[in-house]
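Hi D.,

Good news: the full-assembly prediction came through. Inputs first.
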Amino acid sequence: MKLYEMATTPSCRRVNIFLKLLGVEPERVTVDVRSGENLSSHYRNISANLKVPLLEIDDDTHLCESVAICRYVDAITPNQLYLFGRSPLEMAQVEMWQRMVELQGLMPAFQAFRNLSGVYRDRETCIELWGEESKKRVAAFLPVLEQQLAKHRYVAGSDLTIADISAFVFIKVCENALQLPVIGHYPNISAWLQELQQHDGFSA
Amino acid sequence: MKLYEMATTPSCRRVNIFLKLLGVEPERVTVDVRSGENLSSHYRNISANLKVPLLEIDDDTHLCESVAICRYVDAITPNQLYLFGRSPLEMAQVEMWQRMVELQGLMPAFQAFRNLSGVYRDRETCIELWGEESKKRVAAFLPVLEQQLAKHRYVAGSDLTIADISAFVFIKVCENALQLPVIGHYPNISAWLQELQQHDGFSA
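Then the structure:
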């Protein structure tokens, strides 16, 4: 397996934490997204969404979308971590919180960052007002996450799952890219972050 | 099982097609989202995201997020439809196309509709310019879907999956809510739609 990535992006960070927890170490190829290397004709031939990360399984088989890559690697790697949950109810609760973190947290955070910073202004129209509105929606989601972590040890309940990885990367985007301070302001999120960082993969 | 829903919304339509394919018929409770019934204190007690649909499993257990509901019902219902895929690779490919349809199609379509129509202006800030930009991004995704359906019978490959349900609802939003005509303009999408409508659930 070969992973095409730009390791510093949140989506690649998500996949890399997942791989680290499973102990999987694929061959790696760096794709410079900022300079547009992901728009080359070679990349167009192998990637359906032109983004990183992309997993090459063999010459003819490629997977994009971070969560699809995680699901594949999890399914082919014998392990007892159950990062997507175990029972039908647990699997559904992981999916539910994973989606809430993505749809109310990570995606608005990406939209806030891209529209406010204009980092990809060379290839997309940026609407600053939407960036500001998205940042407000991100800030409104933090108390929802805080409340969930007041009641549960991890985001989807009592076990570490992919929802924690997504929420961890979301908090990093809040703090580092959006100047939305979290640590120290939300005690339960702060304690959960501290616990996560004791696992390999989160600490790097 | 009890499903809280407003049947006409795209998210409820998605879950209802899924349930129909599996032959599952839960008890139903209508929630009038337009008038804000989903913001009542009773609903706040049972729903983590305040949206429809919501599945009540028992008095203390509720699932929100459409795909989480589908995953749960699929896991507890003996069936050989494999709507989330079968082998590790197929499951990952379903997840990949499901997410592409959601992130590049359905979510921008929702953002276009909500920001342009102002249907929830009483409870969210609408940015018309973002509505227009989102509609352009939706239009840019249609050729991607057309190309995939030129190569494959269904959205994620050779079998009917949840990615087809999501794409079907996406096309309906394009045609009915965004005035983006699809049928007749994209031959492969049009043929696929015609085939889908022969399945119970899609035709309603």
